[in-house]
Write a structure and sequence with these properties.
Its main location: membrane. The chain is mainly beta and 554 residues long. It is 5% helix and 54% strand. It has 3 helices and 24 strands.
């Protein structure tokens, strides 16, 4: 397997090849402003007898805080540590009581420098048993940080959600279409002929369908949920990926304190590029959970089978898992665990981390063979919450992003085929004062024990985020976000030069002001320090940029 990966990495450059957030459309060489477009929280208020109100959460935009994502995206660093709680503090600071009923729908329009054009709309509705919404978003920049229109970009999102509530079950579905257009503008500081513009353009189209079925009857002995999703990704150069995934989860109480759990996944994927090949993964994880007073133990065993026609892989591996959680003091959890897993990488997930991937990029799953972790989390009084974790994990096929061997304007995914250790220390603390102030500070620190790779190319050693939300009055809200990312290195293999990228320091501000019950204005200034930083080598990001606009709620 090691020889196969090494040979493929070499042959990859002969093709002129190449890569999260995950969501295959989002530019991740940039920092997410994490700004909240704060409006009066919109909830569907229904009579108490309405089953939809009692059992279904009201439909809102997928990002319940009405976030506006501009040019800045946080890199997805999912390999190093066990998951932390996404938000230390509850996201309820935006909620505002409405005297005459809550407003669910909105339309937003705005613009800014770099020829920025923004439009977004959301409309939802419901009956007694049915809820639905439609969400559309457009954000584009007519020019970019270098070479005018040759570094422009645009993103478009259309999503339709629906849920039906039966007496004992809930059926939900989502249909979406994403389109992203951008350019490989690295090292293009001089204007270029228009005929060359088509040669550096990239367009990603993603169609998706998600369907879920789950039990909502608490009186049933067996609890279960079944979800399936189908995605189709294609680009401007006839590359694509079709991915179908299904997940089942269930639980059965054995005694008052012991539960049997089962989770099963099936993923069938076909990749199209210079070659057409299949990549599949199947897994099953039975588990037992014992909970007694302030003590919880979960023991599981996960079996994973992965196949890859291109890498000639067909193997099954097992990962024992054990986690212990104790509450020695009121409001404080101490936890520790041992386990492993297989991280499934796809073209869509890698593009979610780095959109400037070369053709024929190698895709291999990452094995976390052993992960020893521990930490604590809790709260101090009603306002302070904290969480900290330390993880020491053993990885195989740990990956990074580096400029391609033959074309430094595109990126290859590079893997360390040996087993390597990665140490991760993560901590976050949050403060909230009523619904007036909410602040979260988080830091992640990484130490990569790479072997075959000279450096963990494209990965930071330190990331710090500080997100703050303020409510100055019933009409005025603001968010201030600060970011630091440091320790990133990339190499230009054409010149043999290793470049240590300058630390990224970014500060963003957003203000919302309610003019009337139906109208509000917003203004956002990103990269307040005006730093011309690079998340990926040769790709400078926009300097100081702003967006302002008007929102109509109805």
């Amino acid at each position: 397997m090691k020889k196969i990966l090494v040979s493929l990495l070499v042959s990859q450059s002969l093709y002129t090849l190449l890569s999260q957030d995950v969501l295959a459309q989002k530019p991740t060489g940039e920092i997410d402003s994490q700004t909240f477009e704060v409006e009066k929280k919109k909830k569907i208020e229904l009579p108490p007898a309405n089953r939809l109100y009692n059992k279904l959460q009201p439909f809102t935009n997928e990002d319940d805080d009405r976030k506006l994502n501009y040019e800045f995206r946080a890199p997805k660093l999912t390999l190093g540590a066990p998951k932390m709680t996404p938000n230390v503090l509850p996201v309820n600071g935006n909620e505002k009581p409405e005297e005459d009923g809550n407003l669910q729908n909105y339309v937003k329009l705005g613009g800014g420098n770099y020829g920025k054009v923004y439009g977004e709309g959301f409309m939802g509705g419901h009956t007694e048993d049915l809820g639905y919404d439609v969400h559309f978003k457009h954000l584009s920049n007519q020019t970019g940080p270098v070479d005018g229109k040759n570094s422009a970009n645009s993103e478009n999102r259309l999503k339709i959600n629906g849920q039906y509530l039966g007496s004992t079950f809930k059926l939900g579905g989502t249909l979406f279409y994403d389109r992203d257009n951008y350019y490989f503008y690295a090292n293009r500081n001089q204007p270029n002929a228009e005929v060359q513009k088509a040669n550096i353009r990239q367009t990603l189209n993603t169609f998706g369908l998600q369907v879920g079925f789950e039990n909502i009857d608490n009186n049933k002995f067996i609890d279960y949920a079944l979800k399936t999703s189908l995605y189709r990704l294609s680009d401007r150069y006839n590359a694509g990926e079709t991915d179908w995934g299904t997940n089942f989860s269930g639980s059965i109480p054995i005694t008052e304190n012991i539960f049997a759990l089962l989770n099963a996944d099936a993923f069938v994927s076909q990749r199209v590029d210079a070659e057409t090949f299949k990549r599949n993964m199947f897994s099953i994880k039975p588990a037992f959970k014992f909970a007694y007073n302030a003590f919880t133990v979960t023991a599981a065993f996960k079996a994973v089978n992965e196949t890859d026609d291109r890498l000639k892989i067909n193997r099954t591996v097992g990962f024992p898992q054990l986690e212990v959680d104790a509450v020695p003091f009121n409001g404080v959890h101490i936890f520790a665990g041992y386990g492993g897993d297989m991280t499934r990488n796809t073209l869509r997930s890698l593009l979610g981390e780095n959109r400037w991937l070369a053709p024929n990029v190698i895709i291999a799953n990452t094995e976390r063979s052993r992960d020893i972790y521990g930490g604590l989390k809790g709260e101090v009084g009603p306002s302070f919450q904290f969480e900290g974790k330390v993880s020491y994990a053993l990885f195989k096929n740990f990956y990074g992003f580096n400029n391609d061997w033959l074309d430094s304007t595109k990126f290859a995914v590079v893997y360390d085929a040996d087993y390597i250790n990665v140490l991760t220390v993560s901590a976050q603390v949050g403060y909230q004062y009523q619904n007036i102030v909410r602040s979260t500070l988080r830091g992640d620190f990484y130490d990569y024990g790479v072997k075959r790779l000279e450096q963990p190319w494209g990965r930071p050693t330190t990331t710090v985020t500080w997100n703050n939300h303020f409510v100055f009055s019933k009409k005025m809200f603001a968010t201030i976000d600060a970011y630091y990312i440091g320790g990133i290195k990339n190499r230009n293999f054409l010149t043999g030069k290793t470049v240590a990228l300058k630390p990224i320091v970014d500060l963003n501000l957003k203000v919302d002001y309610l003019l009337t019950r139906n109208f509000s204005i917003f203004a956002s200034v990103n990269n307040l320090l005006g730093k011309s930083y690079e998340r990926y080598l040769y790709y400078p990001q926009q300097g100081l940029n702003f967006l302002a606009g008007l929102s109509l709620q109805f």
